[in-house]
Amino acid sequence: MGNSRSFRKIIPPAACLLGFLALWQAAVSLFAIEAWILPSPLAIFQEMAAEWPRLMGHAAATVRLTLLGFAAGTAAGLGLAALLHLIPGARAGLYPLLVLTQNVPVIVLGDLLVIWFGFGVLPKLILLILVCFFPVSVSMLSGLQQADPKLIHYMRMIGADKRQLFWKLELPGALSHLFSGLKIAASYCVIGAIYAEALGSNEGLGFYIRLSSNGWETSRVFAGILIIVLFSLLLFGVIALIERYSIRWKVRKEGGV
Description:
InterPro entries: MetI-like, MetI-like_sf. The protein is mostly helical.
């Protein structure tokens, strides 16, 4: 029953996507649009098949960078959220600065990091941490502050200290907020990795797309974009799956069970 319902949810977007691809293919053929301006979906898939080994090599580099940056950014975001929540006065002093960091354009940050640290892995990793930690820390901090005051009062009545309140009540209650932040951070991290690779690298899908764009190989650009989209969807799906099995009470509540 559940599988049938999930399948029915997939049908409408899949039908829209197929219709869009059919219109795209027809428009390219009807108006004789040159491939370097807008290749047809068929040409893109053919180019992807021809470039598959090379694409997978660059995709592997992007996946490694993204996962490393996502892990580091998540750890930084969680640590900062715990710091702001547990230390009195830390939120008032540091939270405005945290928001301020997000007003600096990523393009400017990327250029500065290259000037300071060169073209190695370090500037790319720092950039991903900077784009990833904010949604994690903000969502986690918001979740930690949503704990029921009555439950906090009851736990204090039975002798719970601040550490026990955090691990037994506040942290479990914040998980749904955390996963929302992780989904956003994952999308940001993929985009950041592509930009970092395009900025200065000799591998990765960002580098591949920039090289193809410079050579007017538009089919290869679209092929690279398609791989990026698939990877982003996969990463989002993995996080959603972990959320589903980590917060079963939330799933049951939303399902009406």
